[in-house]
Every structure is written in C-alpha cells, then in structure tokens.
Amino acid sequence: MADAATEISPELDLARYQITALRAYAVAALAILLWDYATTVHLEYRRIWKAPWSIVKVLFFITRYSAIACVTIIVFGFHYQYLSDTQCQTYAKMEPVLCVITVASTEAILLIRVWALWGKKIYVLIPLLFCLIVEAAIMFAAAALYVPVEFKPGLGKLEQGCISTGVHPLTTAYWIVPLIFDAIVVVMTVTKLAMNRNGSRSKIAKVFLRDGLMYFSVIFGINLINTVVYLVTPENIKAANSTLAIALTAIMGCRLVLSLRALDDTSGGSSTSRDRSNSRGPGPVVTIGGTNRRGNVSQPQTTTFGSYKMNEFSTDFVGTLADVNEEQLNHHGQGSYNTEDKDDESLYRSEQPRNAFNPFDPVKIQVQHQTEHHVS
C-alpha cells in the first residue's frame, strides 16, 4: 500500500505543478492585457471613441473587449473549483468559442489593412475574405470538440478547477488555420514593401508599410509559438500558451489600429486643429460619391470607401498613398512637405503659406491629376 502511494505521489506532484503553472501563466496574460488597456485607454478615447463609426472601429471594440472577457473567463475557470461536471463541460466549449471571436476580429483588422496596402483591389479582398470565413468556420468547429482537462486520479476536483483543452486530432486546426492566414498576410505585406521600395520615396509611405509588417510579423510569431507548444506538449497542458497568445494577438491588433490613427493625426492634424482651422473660412472641396461640394474642415474628408486621410482606409486617385511620392507632390503643388522633425498638429501647418499645397488633400490631388491629364 505504501509502495502504491509512493508510486503515485510523483505523478500527483507533477499534476499540481502543472496546474499551478497554468494558473500563473493565465494570470500573467490577464495582467499584461489589463496593463495594455490601462496605458492605451486614453488613446482609445481620443482616436477611436471620438472617431466616426466604421467597420474598423467596430472590429477594434470587438477585439479589445472580447479579449478581456475571454482571458478573464479562462482565469476564472482555472481558479473556480466548484463547477459541476456538466457546467465544466459547457465551460470547456464556451471558452474557445469566445476566443474565436477575438481571433477572427483581429484577423479582420489585418485583412482590411492588407487590402488598403494593395490599393483596395477587389481581387485582393475576395480571396482574403474567403480565407477569413473558412478560418472562422474551422475554428468554431474545432471549438466544439474541446473538453475539460482530466488530470491524474487522486488529484481531486477542488484542486484542478476547470481547464479546457483539445484532445481530438482535429482540434489542432484551431491554432493552425490562424497561423496560415497570418503567413499569407505577412507574405503580401513583404511583397508590397518590396514593390514600393524604389517606387515611393515618401517617408510616411515607408513607415506605413513597415509598421504593418512589424505588427503582422509579431502576430504570426505568437501563433507559431502557440501552435508548436500545442503540438509537442502533453494533453493536460496543450493550452498552456493559448491564453497568452490570445492576449498578445488582441493587443497587437488593437495597437495596429491605434498606430494607424496616430499616423492619421500626424498626416492630417488632430480634430482640435481641424476645428480651429474652421474659423479661417470655408473648408476644402471634398468628394463624396463622385460629387464635389463645399465641405467643413471639421468633418471627415471622405470617398466612397471611407476616410481619405492616412489611416486603415487610405487610398488616393490611383492607388494607396504609398504610390504618391514626394517628387510627384512637389511637382504638382506650390509647396513641399517634410515628414521629419514634425509632429501632430504642426506637421503640415507650420512654415507653410496659407494656400500651400497639402499633399493629403484628396481634391487637390484629384484636380491636379485631372488637369494634367486634360492638358496632355
């Protein structure tokens, strides 16, 4: 009897150690997520809450708050020890389903970003959208196969809590399909960056591309590590890295949007500066659905696709802003622009004549382009 107890004891100790490690890892992921939220909530208010409603704004909120809910529920399951077997079965499927929402919304942000980089071409949008739909469908199907972790006999339910994991071979697809989508996004971004290396000398355009590549690569790396951990670890700790992966993926997706909105502020000025400029007279002509009319500077300058400024919906008269280089803008305009040593509101307003050419004015770009074409 003593020998049997001695034989089981190391296994129980290992199980207790694994549970403790999983709990600590989950709490750390939640702490990172909440720290990121606390340090960026002021940016969220200024750049997201105060911005007009758009698909990216909706996706930002879904990603941001579904991630907090998902990771919080995971931590709750790890520590709450009084769920019945039926409740634990339900929880084991609910938790990965909620995480699918976080992952899918983040991937949708990446999709829109890549679509904008490629000039909002329909032949880019349709395949990416198809891949995203297939990814979400596979992840939801795999989530239905998740079950509670079964630790060694003798551990006791009060010690192990309720931890969700996938033991069915098909549950591996839960983490592989996001990895494939991220790889496609990274390849498309690298390709676009290579195509614009010599075609555009605008510093903003290069930062626009490199910034996206950095975020995409980080998300790809996170999912790659998580997939490897899922494939090589024992069943009871397969999900060890998934909580952190969910948290970091959501953080990167949200920071990508905030970063693009920061670039938007830099290129077009903040809303405060636009409101101040309204007192200097009528706003520029804006193009809405192909019809020119007088607009108000405090209102968004839009096209059919959304905001015309340097953000996730950026386009110009022939493609993305990456296709408009500094030489072209200086050739068409009355003044030049310098992206160095300038920040936010002063970027295009200081040291420029009142009527100086603004390279991010969609109508002036369009009028100059049409005039040149007509004369030729």
UniProtKB/TrEMBL annotation:
Keywords, comma-separated and alphabetical: Membrane, Transmembrane, Transmembrane helix
Annotated ranges, domain DUF6533: 26-68
Highest taxon in the source lineage: Eukaryota
Spans traversing the lipid bilayer: 20-38, 58-82, 94-115, 122-147, 173-191, 212-233
InterPro entries referenced in this protein's UniProt entry, alphabetically: DUF6533
Positions of the UniProt region annotated as Disordered: 265-304, 331-362
Polar residues compositional bias, start-end: 289-304
Pfam families: DUF6533
Descriptive protein name: DUF6533 domain-containing protein
Species of provenance: Wallemia mellicola (strain ATCC MYA-4683 / CBS 633.66) (Wallemia sebi (CBS 633.66))
